[in-house]
Amino acid sequence: MLTCIIRYQIDPTKLEAFRRYARNWGEAIPRNGADLVGYYAPHEGSATQAYGIYNIPNLAAYEAYRARLAADPLGRENYAFAQKERFILREERSFLKLASAPQQTPEQNL
Predict the structure, then answer these.
(1) pLDDT (0 to 100) of residue 100
(2) pLDDT(54) > 80
(3) Bridge partners of 81?
(4) Most buried among 15, 55, 60, 80, by the most CB within 10 A?
(5) Domains detected in the chain
(6) CB of 61 closer than 8 Å to CB of 2
(7) pTM of the model
């Protein structure tokens, strides 16, 4: 399993546009085959950093997922919305593998 972390630099004056963009991906990403962890918008601290995080089985599955997302009506609309509104100043993707065991809750330690 790979985790894709998208780091965005956004225009802080267009935070609501980014939130709309994130909500749209909240529908489109799971529908097209990735396990969405979530989109995160600035709250405190940096007003320009935002993140999108999802899991995908492997890079081959990622390529197929990207093709489906590009063909999805909401996906196409969201890409066009971002280009038109220009709230994303920079976007970087990293693919990571879990290097530790998942955290256990206190109840699981009993």
Answers:
(1) 86
(2) yes
(3) none
(4) 15
(5) 2-96 (3.30.70.100)
(6) no
(7) 0.86
